[in-house]
Amino acid sequence: MSTAAAPVRQLDAHTVGELRRAAEKILTEFGTSATSRPLLERVAQQAGEFSQTLRHHCRPVDTADGLFVLRGLEIDDEAVGPTPADWASAGGSGALHDIELLLLATAMGTPLAWEGQQDGRFVHNIVPSPGHETEQTGASSTVLLSPHTEDAFHPGRAHLLMLGCMRNHDSIATTAASIRRVRLSDEDIDLLTRPAVPILPDDAYADAQGYAAEAPPPVPALYASDEGMTLRFDPAYTPLEGADEEYRAAYGRLEAELSRVSVAVSLSPGEVLVVDNDLVVHGRVPFAPRYDGTDRWLKRASVRIPGRLTRPPAEAREHGYGQAALEARAA
Ligand SMILES: O=C(O)CCC(=O)C(=O)O
Ligand SMILES: [Fe+2]
């Protein structure tokens, strides 16, 4: 794994102020970052008034890295208070930054939430939580969070994943590997673009894991879209034992290549990592949680980009294990 620098989009002080004032205005009006239809509409309106500069910073991912870091937001370590012990008790912690992230997400596309995850919130809190140390979810810590496409089991998954850093005293890295950096033989690509095995719902979706109404659909790991190669990959939730040996070997080579091109991005407070979820798998290195209110703390938002053609059309027929994606589309 390398620590090669991710492309950075540095916000100037003026633009940071513009974003902050927009968020402050909304927080004053609503008194909360809890998302409601009126708040989402207000956010969309405010994002529609963004300056040309701020909009330019929110343009699509435009390099083969499949990601960028937006840098320069102001986080007051004292004012945001202690890192919440888990998402459920986070409440309004860092509410201003929830709204900032939601504004940025809205400038990039349509924010997305899940009925079955973190109470349907549009901005998630990612913190290490007691009892969840070894899971393959954002709440874990002591294990490697293996590289994955976010919400890979679902056809309504995000096109962009945004991770905004509130606190990261131990410089714990997110990992990212782009399919556009991977080298595979034509034979492997041919195998991996076929729907061989399903991707099952992850541990963050207890309801979906109990879904038994229809069989899990096999899905391809790779897709040669008009825009180039894209991927849908989550080995921790892929029952590979259902595939033949040839496929398993090709899948293993894809995994090895992703690991070869993986970069470590250690976020600092005020940085937002934006990952193209069709190009890049992300994960996290293991770390020792502190559990004293000073733990690593990220805010996460998911974004859909309407009309994007980076996925196989057959996805539209998938059941998504009964999970409903909620899009913040204007009513
Ligand atoms: O903690 C991280 O850096 C990434 C966690 C993760 O996979 C996520 O929030 O989706
Ligand atoms: Fe993730």
TrEMBL record:
Segments of this protein annotated with the region Disordered: 309-331
Keyword Iron in the entry? The reply is yes
Residues passing through the membrane, by range: none
Q: Where does Fe cation bind?
A: H148, E150, H282
The UniProt GO MF terms for this protein read:
iron ion binding; oxidoreductase activity
The question of whether Iron is a record keyword is answered with yes
Report residues binding 2-oxoglutarate: T174, R296, R300
Cite the TauD/TfdA-like domain residue spans from the record.
Answer: 106-301
Listed A to Z, the keywords are:
Iron, Metal-binding, Oxidoreductase
Family assignment from sequence similarity: Belongs to the clavaminate synthase family.
Q: Specify the protein name.
A: Oxygenase
Organism of this sequence: Streptomyces agglomeratus
